[in-house]
Specification:
- The protein is an all-alpha fold and 431 residues long.
- It contains 17 helices and no strands.
- Helix 5 (83-98) packs across helix 12 (259-305) and helix 8 runs antiparallel to helix 12 (259-305).
- The longest helix has 47 residues, at 259-305.
Length: 431
């Protein structure tokens, strides 16, 4: 093989760190501590579930993207011609104005403003935050690049110090084990939204590696494996440490408290007031960078998707306005709002990712049609349950489905759909 078709060790490490920076969102930091607190002594089980839906499917998503060139149209075409495009639109709305962008503002307000200025007006802050987002998204600025290049590493450094100090001088470890934490952790991992964006994000890296001379599919797969390995290892260490810190916070932590409040208290007890100031500053700048980046990505996507019918600047205005309004709900309410939506999207995306990875032209479109349709039905019921309608007859009926008690009823439906799709494809072949 031509040596030019392989990347250097330096390029691999830099790419792995860049991928880590993309998925390492400041808004996600508030998720693992509360998960660990709720799980108690069962925090390792919850962490496994969390990492399965977060890290494992980032890895699988990047591998799957190789075979569809990171193109969402190709990704979903065996189900229907435009299904992948529709799924891409939904995902961009979720990581854009509906969930991810407003959560960056809400996280910033609750971690960087409220602890120091308790009476600061939430509406005023959101207007300032999104005015900055709008300005940088429209005009672009090296300031944002500077923040992204330096504030994310600074935030990571602070977290490492907190994790090391928390492990060396533990607080109050919980001895109470809580059941069904594998499913709880898996569903909590939905909130990062990393796995559902992995195929879209992978397209950038595929293009980059091809420009470096990697044309062979096997070499591309091996390159992706190493790059994702670096990013996923770092993500696993950060999320694992934060989950552990939540689990040892029973002396002052309470599941009824806000996620941001719990993390702020953990930082205060391990690093003092200086730690909270440093974390608050880095969180503000890192979240602003994320907000600008996601606003740009969302606006560019819809401009390209509509072939210019929706101008970039118009989409920036819409995105910032919608995100500004939703951000006023606060972190916990945004998470509560997003949980049912993600419960519908995630299973379908996970199934399609696995099918594309295993396909190589060998899987019948009937298997796609039946399995995705069945999974979608089950995930809608899970979404209804997540909205709190647990007493509906339909929801209660699904409680008897295998794996439903763990939140995985959709897996049973996926397997049934695959089986039916296989039978139909064989019958079609015979006829």
């Amino acid at each position: 093989m031509d040596p030019s078709s392989k990347i250097t060790t330096k390029q691999m490490i830099v790419s792995g760190l860049a991928l880590f920076a993309i998925f390492f969102g400041a808004g996600n930091l508030v998720l693992p501590p509360m998960m660990g607190l709720k799980a108690g002594a069962s925090w390792p089980i919850a962490l496994i579930g969390f990492l399965l839906s977060e890290i494992v499917f980032i890895f699988i998503g990047f591998q799957s993207a190789i075979f569809c060139n990171g193109d969402m149209r190709e990704f979903g075409k065996k189900y229907s011609k435009n299904f992948g495009v529709l799924l891409g639109v939904v995902i961009m709305l979720l990581i854009g104005p509906i969930i991810a962008i407003p959560r960056t503002a809400a996280t910033t307000f609750e971690m960087s403003v409220l602890p120091f200025f308790p009476d600061f007006n939430h509406i005023l802050f959101s207007l300032i935050f999104f005015a900055l987002t709008f300005f940088f998204s429209i005009n672009g600025s090296s300031v944002v690049d500077f923040i992204g290049n330096y504030m994310t590493p600074a935030l990571l450094f602070i977290l490492i110090v907190i994790l090391v100090k928390g492990i060396i001088s533990p607080l109050a470890p919980s001895t109470q084990a809580v059941g069904q934490q594998l499913g709880a952790g898996f569903v909590e991992g939905y909130q990062t939204m990393d796995a559902i964006t992995s195929v879209i994000m992978a397209s950038t890296f595929i293009t980059y590696f091809r420009d470096l001379g990697i044309k062979d599919t096997k070499e591309m797969s091996w390159t992706m494996t190493r790059v994702c390995g670096i990013a996923c290892l770092l993500l696993g260490l950060v999320y694992g440490g934060l989950t552990y810190l939540g689990a040892i916070s029973t002396s002052f932590g309470d599941p009824s408290m806000q996620r941001t409040e719990l993390l702020t208290k953990i930082v205060g007890l391990t690093m003092g007031s200086f730690g909270n100031i440093a974390l608050g500053l880095c969180t503000f700048l890192a979240c602003l960078t994320t907000s600008v980046g996601l606003t740009h990505a969302t606006s560019s996507f819809f401009q390209d998707f509509t072939k210019g019918k929706i101008p970039y600047k118009f989409m920036v205005i819409v995105t910032t306005l919608v995100a500004c309004v939703i951000s006023l709900l606060g972190v916990d309410q945004i998470i509560a709002l997003s949980a049912p939506l993600l419960s519908v999207v995630y299973p379908v995306m996970i199934l399609l990712t696995i099918l594309n990875l295993l396909d190589h032209g060998r899987i019948s479109h009937w298997i796609y049609k039946f399995s995705v349709s069945f999974t979608f039905i089950a995930s809608i019921v899970d979404g209804i349950r997540a909205y709190g309608f647990k007493d509906l007859s339909l929801v209660k009926a699904f409680d008897h489905i295998p794996l439903a008690q763990y939140g995985f009823s959709w897996i049973f439906f996926s397997l049934v759909g695959i089986g039916l799709g296989f039978l139909v494809s064989r019958l079609k072949e015979k006829n």
